[in-house]
Amino acid sequence: MSHSVLLSRLKLRHLSLLQGIKRWGTLTRVAIEMGISQPAVTKALSEAEDICGGMLFVRTGRGLVATRLGELAIAKAELILQELEVWGAQIQAVQHGYADRLRIGAMPYVSVELLTQAVQLLYSRHGIASSITQLTSNFLVQALTKRELDCVIGRATALTGLEGVSYEILYEQQVALIAHQQVVRRLQHRQISLADFVDMQWILPSEQTPVGRKIAEMFHKANLTLPVPVVETYDPGIILRMLRHNERLLAIVPLDLAHDLERRGGAGIVPLAFDWNLPAISLIRRTDSKLPSSEELFAQILRELSAAQIWSV
User: Which segments constitute the HTH lysR-type domain (predicted)?
Assistant: First the structure.
């Protein structure tokens, strides 16, 4: 199959058709979703198979299933459609006076101060608009590999077994115990240990997360039973709102996030020392990113802010 044949015969409708068949598995449903007749869908599939030089799907009891040639065609179709979506967003950004638009993924435990200053500087220095998606690192990295995001600020532990992505460490992340401000004031000049808080109520992340695993290890090493949390969450907003209204609640969060929450009022950092850190916060990108790019400009800003540790100022 020559490059010229693909350029002259392959149309966007063929790409949308392939994506639709993968999603729905039946030509009837694809026709409904595309707003065309089923004979038109059948014809378009026949054209796509003729262009690719073989069958793309076989009929089974579960609907249409892609052949090896079909899997290749679908993968390329999705890649092209995703790039077109990005291109459309960039065109819209430029039409509105921006230089570009960057799609950023950030895990909830990334400092709000860092993220806010970074996107503000990205715009003020370079005129680049941005969108921010907040999920756990595992989900964000999956979105990055699918080209749904341009870069991710998260933990490189999510990259295990993945190819086509790279990372650079931005900063090491320490941990802190936080509580209602009144509790923090009462504890300021006391000698305290983890055992002093076993009867308190806790907000904890899932044990499936890096923080959750570290917390479980900490209680085990101290020969203490891991508390059953009142709420299991890593959402900073929920943690802060609950701490503001309950003096018996405690939470363990990254130190940079603890400073963020302290500035917002209602919670403070309990003077309990920890002998462990969390996995570092890293900037994660696809290895096919072409430099110089908006991602690299954003990376330069993140390096600058991380070196200054602006969240602790």
Answer: 10-67
